[in-house]
Design goal:
Number of strands of chain A: 0
Oligomer: heterodimer
Distance between the termini of chain B: 41 Å
Helix content of chain A: over 70%
Number of domains of chain A: 1
Largest sheet of chain B: none
Structural class of chain B: mainly alpha
Helix content of chain B: 55-70%
Low-confidence stretches of chain B: none
Order of helices and strands of chain B: HHH
Mean pLDDT of chain B: 91
Mean pLDDT of chain A: 89
Order of helices and strands of chain A: HHHH
Number of domains of chain B: 1
Number of helices of chain A: 4
Chain lengths: 137, 74
């Protein structure tokens, strides 16, 4: 009788343990889903930024105010994309393709920074281009 | 424009314009074009050539872009 009672209690505890593990697994799956959704939304945000940059910075002649706004926005995007890429590059992250997507976008954002905010001085660039492509005007 | 430089600018442009993980592949294509040009200029650093191409890219994009549309007169 006594051993039956202990057995029942153990079984109840085990069931409860299984249930809590299931709850934890569901929570972890949800957390992964949220992180994946966030990364996808972030990639969309980066795409919008890069499209805007093309139209309003690269194809246009932006004034100092627009350039400064771009600089600030790009700085924030770079910092946040680095953080997200770090998370997505973790071997435990559920969606492996997101790390590659974030890495590619990070590379494009880094190029944007150098291209727009840290260009090579004109005289240095012209000297190199003239040396390498002599027929270039 | 020099054909080699134009090819570099187009390859760099393709990398910057693409959306998705494909960008990495296009970056490698651009880099391999840089390497090809550098083969004839062993004293020039890859980063220096890239930065010069990057500088030329700004002017090239503006030259390629359509002129701004003027709204019709009322």
């Amino acid at each position: 009788m006594l051993s039956e009672g202990i057995g029942m209690r153990t079984a109840t505890l085990e069931m409860s343990g299984d249930r809590s593990v299931n709850v934890l697994a569901r929570m972890a799956a949800q957390a992964h889903r949220i992180a994946g959704d966030l990364a996808n939304r972030w990639l969309g945000c980066c795409d919008e930024f890069l499209d805007w940059q093309r139209r309003h910075i690269l194809e246009a002649e932006p004034d100092a105010e627009r350039l400064e706004a771009h600089r600030q926005a790009l700085k924030f995007l770079l910092r946040s994309t680095r953080l997200m890429h770090c998370q997505a590059a973790d071997p435990d992250f559920s969606d492996r393709s997101l790390a590659a997507e974030l890495s590619a976008r990070l590379q494009q954002l880094e190029q944007s920074w150098a291209l727009i905010h840290e260009p090579m001085p004109a005289e240095d660039a012209e000297a190199i281009l003239k040396g390498v492509f002599p027929d270039e005007r | 424009m020099n054909a080699e430089l134009e090819a570099l600018l187009k390859a760099y442009d393709a990398f910057l314009q693409v959306r998705g993980a494909e960008a990495s592949r296009l970056w490698h294509i651009y880099e391999s074009r840089l390497d090809k040009v550098l083969a004839g200029h062993p004293k020039l650093a890859k980063e220096s050539l890239h930065r010069a191409v990057q500088w030329a890219y700004r002017g090239w994009v503006r030259a390629q872009s359509p002129p701004p549309t003027i709204p019709p007169k009322a």
